[in-house]
Amino acid sequence: MIAILDYGSGNLRSAQRAFELSGHETFVTSDPEICRSSDGLVVPGVGAFGACMDQLLAAGGDLIIQERIAAAQPILGICVGMQILFDSGSEKGGSSGLGVFFR
After folding, report:
1. Is 45 exposed, middle or buried (0-12, 13-18, 19+ CB in 10 A)?
2. If DSSP codes are grouped into helix, strand and coil, which group holds residue 91?
3. What is the percent of the chain where pLDDT is above 70?
4. Are 17 and 64 in contact (CB under 8 A)?
5. Mean pLDDT across the chain, nearest whole number?
6. At a CB cut-off of 8 Å and minimum separation 6, what does 14 contact?
7. Stretch 76-80: mean pLDDT, rounded?
8. CB-hemisphere CA count at 13 Å for 63?
9. Pick from 11, 28, 85, 30: nearest CA to 53
10. CATH code for residues 2-96
């Protein structure tokens, strides 16, 4: 099962359709337990880096991502969802990211 993290940013339905077309059971969810127990987690993102980070933090998505990384569980970031995995973004004066990757 693939979980697509719904934290208020991203083209969720397009990502869901793409994974379903590949034959995977897919859920769009903000439920931490589903996100933790899924075979893969997709982190979408559309818009400005800082706004996506704010929404991710407010939804507790940062904790879900950190737990999956610590457990060596797969995560796929799409668009800004991938960018927020870096330590920072330089858009609009700069914002901190999750620090999974460093520049």
Report:
1. buried
2. helix
3. 99
4. no
5. 93
6. none
7. 94
8. 8
9. 85
10. 3.40.50.880
For every residue of 22-78, DSSP letters joined together read TT--EEEE--HHHHHHSSEEEE---S-HHHHHHHHHHHTHHHHHHHHHHTT--EEE-
Residues of the chain with pLDDT > 90: what percent? 84
Decide the pairing of beta strands 88-89 and 95-96: antiparallel
Structure tokens at 23: 């034959």
Beta-bridged to residue 4, according to DSSP, are: 28, 42
Ramachandran bin of 22, using left for φ above 0, alpha for ψ from -120 to 50, beta for the remaining angles: alpha
56 SS3 class: helix
C-alpha closest to that of 13 among 34, 27, 33, 32: 27
Q: Which two tokens stand for residue 100?
A: 């999974």
Show me where the domains of the chain are located.
2-96
